[in-house]
Amino acid sequence: METNIFNRRKKQVTAYGYARFVFPIPRSLDSVIYQVIDELFKAAGPYNIRVKTDEMLEVEIKKTTLAGITETTEPDLVNRLKTFVHSGEIVLVHNGTVIDPGYSSILMYLPHQTKKELLSEAESKGMKLHDYLTEFFNNKFGLK
Question: Which of 10, 96, 101, 127 could cysteine-pair with 67, CB 3.0–4.6 Å?
């Protein structure tokens, strides 16, 4: 008997960020892509995953461990995760596979006026400060 994933309560992950997978739209219901998404739902629970469709199928998932899924036990699944991850990291550990959004925090102290100017610049571009600074540093160091 199959277990309903909505009955097994998974706590909401409070860590920052989502790893993102981008899949082509499957042509049939028995596609391996749906099997991959099913495994992600089982591991993360419905509160830690978002699915969007457009020309592609996008799955965003909080930091999650796929317990018992390794390159030895499920090589095809691990390979598909590595193939379709768009942002974040697939980290192999001894007892499973970790899907890690790949973010780390940084604490900065700035003069108040500098912060005001950064906020103003971000607002003028219709962005939140975090997104503005992320874009700034990515451009500065040629990332993404």
Answer: 96
> Distance between CA atoms of 12 and 101, rounded to whole angstroms?
15
Which CA distances in Å does 37 have to 6, 31, 68, 113, 137? 15, 10, 16, 46, 32
Q: What is the pLDDT of residue 4?
A: 52
Report the pLDDT averaged over residues 42-70. 95
Query: What is residue 71's DSSP assignment?
Result: T
Mean pLDDT of the region 58-64: 97
Residue 132 belongs to what H/E stretch?
helix 129-140
How many Å apart are CA 127 and CA 14, to the nearest integer?
23
Q: Is residue 90 within 8 Å of 97, Cβ to Cβ?
A: yes
pLDDT digits (tens, 9 = 90+) for 106-134: 999 999 999 999 999 999 999 999 999 99
Burial 5-37 (b: 16+ CB within 10 A, else e): beeeebeebeeebbbbbebeeeeeeeeebeebb
Which pLDDT band holds residue 1 (cuts at 50, 70, 90)?
very low
